[in-house]
Design brief:
79% helix, elongated, mainly alpha, 341 residues
Length: 341
């Protein structure tokens, strides 16, 4: 495969990473909604944290993205134009879906969109057997169901606990809660950056395996890929994160400091656990679910259930829509590329 096609794939991998950064606004959502920090300061702090924390939780998610969706032997042994079309179609389907969702302000799972795009393109290119269905069922489908459910339940429990102690606290406790929110936002941003950067590292290594396998021997390649991904993620957060932050922070429930604290704690716990297990989960699903859990524990009637249900609906449509898009784009691209390569 020539250098031009390799560079196109690499550019698409980083474009996916940039648009994934838009969803980084989830970590700011409750902090901004509770007025615990000014918008620009929170945005800058989250971006700086995401920039320096991509390697803190290992590379289990990167392995899942790189080798546990489509069996590697299918694309490594395929003709160059077929392998290129597979990867390009998966990236483009994912990027289109993320961008359209961001324009509407609906938080979606960038990882599920990418998995769907790659899976659809992979099945179209290599057949149904190419899918690593056992690991997809456990690390993707099961995690997609359990992570928001766990976030809801933990958010509900934490809200009850926080409310119990807050009811007995003095007025000075407000400043303590505010500082705890800021500290928790740093942790949440770090955990999210680790999960998201690993997804990008996984797809970058997919590009290298297909387009330039000799580069895999470069010392420290994983570190370079992680740091460059973190830089692009931070840029995406700075330029597009606020739209999602407003939807999640202001659209589901009227957030106060105690709600924000309980939601952040629940989201951080679920996200760090999922990352260590190698599951490419959706931070937007986790944060949104924790807010609904917190709101339900405090006052169910105040939860904007129409917005919550609209967000939930995207959780179940993202993967199949992206898969159909990836398959359709593969057939189109393979026809075009066969004349150009």
């Amino acid at each position: 495969m020539n250098i031009t096609w390799a560079l196109v794939l690499l550019a698409l991998a980083y474009l996916f990473t940039f648009f994934t950064g838009f969803n980084g606004g989830n970590v700011l959502a409750t902090l901004l909604a509770s007025h615990a920090m000014k918008q620009r300061s929170a945005l800058l702090l989250a971006a700086l944290v995401q920039l320096v924390s991509p390697l803190m939780l290992g590379m289990a998610v990167a392995k899942t993205m790189g080798s546990d969706i489509i069996h590697p032997n299918y694309f490594l042994e395929a003709p160059p134009h077929q392998a290129w079309s597979f990867l390009c179609a998966g990236f483009v389907a994912c990027i289109i879906f993320i961008f359209v969702s961001w324009k509407t302000g609906i938080p979606i799972s960038a990882s599920h969109s990418l998995i769907g795009g790659l899976l659809g393109a992979g099945v179209a290119a290599f057949g149904f057997a190419a899918g690593n269905w056992e690991k997809i069922a456990v690390k993707v489908i099961l995690a997609m169901i359990l992570s928001p459910l766990a976030s809801f339940v933990i958010g509900f429990i934490f809200m009850k606990i926080v409310r119990f102690f807050a009811a007995r606290a003095t007025q000075k406790a407000d400043s303590v809660i505010t500082w705890m929110q800021r500290g928790n936002m740093v942790l949440l941003a770090a955990f999210q950056a680790s999960n998201e950067a690993q997804k990008s590292v996984g797809v970058i290594f997919l590009v290298i395996m297909i387009a330039a396998p000799s580069l895999q021997s470069i010392p420290g390649l994983t570190v370079y890929a992680a740091l460059s991904s973190a830089l692009v993620l931070s840029a995406g957060l700075m330029l597009g994160g606020l739209r999602i932050a407003r939807t999640v922070g202001f659209g589901i429930y009227r957030i106060r400091p105690v709600h924000s604290l309980a939601s952040q704690l629940a989201s951080s716990l679920v996200l760090v656990t999922s990352t260590l297990m190698g599951s490419p989960v959706s931070p937007s699903q986790i944060v949104s679910s924790s807010i609904v859990g917190v709101g339900t524990a405090f006052r169910p009637s105040a939860v904007r259930w129409d917005v919550a249900l609209r967000i939930v609906s995207t959780w179940f449509t993202t993967l199949p829509i992206s898969a159909l898009g990836g398959a359709g784009l593969y057939y189109l691209l393979s026809w075009v590329v066969s004349f150009l390569m």
